């Protein structure tokens, strides 16, 4: 997974603070995890429910736009990135360190778990 493109939580924060659009943000954590800590700009597509949303991924994400994927530490999001690439999504990036790193490095108001 070392060749998987990624962005840092600092890059994510800069993007969120810029007010820009053009990047699709996806959180693959479970609903229980989102109840603890979530960033509102993200679309929730839990990796565990891929059998449900996977066949219609084109209804959720535009292949022509970049996609940044978030999870707790970066493992599930990397899995999602690899799967998206296998589905023809080219501009896919893993958010290194996940919401855990975001909480520690960017915004302590985001609960740490």
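-> sequence recovered:
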């Amino acid at each position: 997974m070392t060749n998987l493109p990624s962005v840092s939580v600092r890059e994510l924060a800069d993007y969120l603070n810029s007010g820009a659009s053009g990047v699709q943000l996806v959180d693959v954590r479970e609903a229980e995890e989102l109840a603890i800590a979530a960033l509102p700009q993200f679309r929730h597509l839990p990796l565990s429910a891929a059998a449900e949303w996977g066949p219609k991924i084109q209804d959720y994400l535009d292949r022509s736009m970049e996609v940044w994927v978030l999870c707790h530490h970066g493992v599930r999001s990397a899995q999602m990135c690899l799967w998206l690439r296998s589905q023809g999504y080219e501009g896919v990036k893993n958010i290194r360190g996940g919401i855990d790193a975001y909480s520690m490095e960017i915004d302590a108001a985001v609960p740490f778990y």
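The chain is about 40% helix and 15% strand.
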